[in-house]
């Protein structure tokens, strides 16, 4: 079969189609031009408004935390109980290091989900007379049996269970700071005992309640059940609510032992406490050994420095993130130097010495 196509009819239809396409293209072009004009207008208006605001309005930065000025000394901590303990140490003649140590033990009691003697510290100390800053690194370290691939097939074991535990450094760092930088006025026991007393009973706070709400879904895990047994009401069977009094008597007892020790580092890393840690590790599949504890060291170095206008900042070298954070104010044209903020513990004593201490167990 032969099919004959009328080429003249096709040509007529093609002309009609071309006219329609031409009108369509013109419409698209007009819309594009209008879009560009609107975009340029928006950019010009934004730049104009930014310029006007930049040079004619005073920008007020409202700090998230309250700021205050003090004539003699100051102490800041996550809990008012811990800030008061630090203040009392200063009043009794202690220095900033003494006060920070006492507040750190306190934080371990009222913030057990975030910090404690099972974790580690970064401690920056400003020495007024020497006009320099020293850094103590007592963060957790990996056990000698740890490997790069140990969490490859069980990622949750990096967060839960005994294989997730690093060698604790907090007590080693606090004792090192006390011996090297403490005032020698306040006995070691007076820095630890306030926390031991507080562990016998303190009011549950909102942050603690929020944490327990988050972990309530993890049922059956030994470490979670241990927390549940400590912080669960016997009457309701649920975690304590805000304002209810909670206690941690095992921690209170341990802190009393540490407070009364002539050498708490020997006790914790090579004595009876060390033996208890290793027994628990063996019983629960942990990999920390007695040699790991015995060989732990706090590293003391001078800090890094950075100048910002008339201010000079000091901060810890890697593995901390200070090398990055110190650069942030340089990016901002007018640094908000009065925008108050704090690490977990900050203390300035009446001699002008200062301590910034961050403590963590890497869970919150």
From TrEMBL:
Coiled coil: none annotated. InterPro entries: GGT_peptidase, GGT_ssub_C, Ntn_hydrolases_N. The chain crosses the membrane at residues 24-48. Keywords: Membrane, Transmembrane, Transmembrane helix. Pfam families: G_glu_transpept (PF01019). GO terms for cellular component: plasma membrane. GO terms for molecular function: glutathione hydrolase activity. It comes from the Eukaryota. The keyword Transmembrane applies. GO terms for biological process: glutathione catabolic process. Gene3D superfamilies: 3.60.20.40. The keyword Transmembrane applies. L-glutamate binds at residue 139. This is Gamma-glutamyltransferase. It comes from Caenorhabditis remanei.
């Amino acid at each position: 079969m032969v099919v004959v196509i009328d080429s003249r009819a096709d040509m007529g239809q093609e002309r009609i189609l071309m006219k329609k396409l031409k009108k369509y293209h013109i419409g698209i072009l007009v819309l594009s031009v209008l879009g560009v004009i609107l975009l340029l207008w928006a950019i010009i208006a934004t730049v104009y408004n930014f310029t006007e605001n930049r040079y004619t309005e005073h920008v007020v930065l409202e700090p998230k935390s309250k700021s205050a000025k003090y004539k003699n000394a100051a102490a800041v901590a996550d809990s008012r109980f811990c800030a008061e303990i630090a203040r009392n140490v200063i009043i009794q003649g202690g220095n900033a290091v003494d006060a920070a140590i006492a507040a750190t033990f306190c934080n371990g009691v009222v913030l057990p989900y975030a910090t404690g003697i099972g974790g580690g510290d970064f401690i920056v100390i400003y020495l007024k007379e020497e006009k320099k800053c020293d850094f103590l690194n007592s963060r957790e370290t990996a056990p000698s049996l740890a490997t790069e691939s140990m969490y490859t097939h069980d990622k949750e074991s990096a967060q839960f269970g005994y294989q997730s535990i690093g060698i604790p450094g907090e007590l080693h760092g606090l004792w090192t700071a006390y011996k090297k930088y403490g005032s020698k006025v306040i006995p070691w026991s007076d820095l630890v005992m306030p926390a031991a007393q507080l562990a016998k009973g303190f009011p549950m706070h909102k942050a603690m309640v929020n944490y327990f709400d988050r972990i309530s879904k993890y049922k059956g895990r030994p470490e979670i059940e241990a927390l549940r047994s400590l912080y669960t009401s016997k009457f309701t069977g649920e975690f304590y609510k805000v304002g209810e009094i909670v206690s941690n008597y095992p921690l209170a007892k341990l802190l009393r032992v540490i407070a009364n020790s002539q050498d708490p580092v020997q006790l914790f890393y090579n004595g009876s406490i060390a033996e208890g840690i290793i027994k628990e590790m063996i019983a629960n599949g942990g990999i920390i050994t007695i040699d790991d504890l015995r060989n732990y060291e706090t590293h003391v170095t001078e800090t890094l420095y950075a100048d910002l206008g008339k201010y000079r900042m000091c901060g810890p070298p890697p593995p901390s993130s200070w090398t990055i954070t110190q650069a942030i104010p340089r990016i901002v044209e007018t640094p908000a130097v009065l925008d108050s903020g704090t690490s977990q513990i900050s203390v300035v004593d009446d001699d002008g010495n200062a301590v910034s201490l961050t403590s963590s167990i890497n869970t919150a």
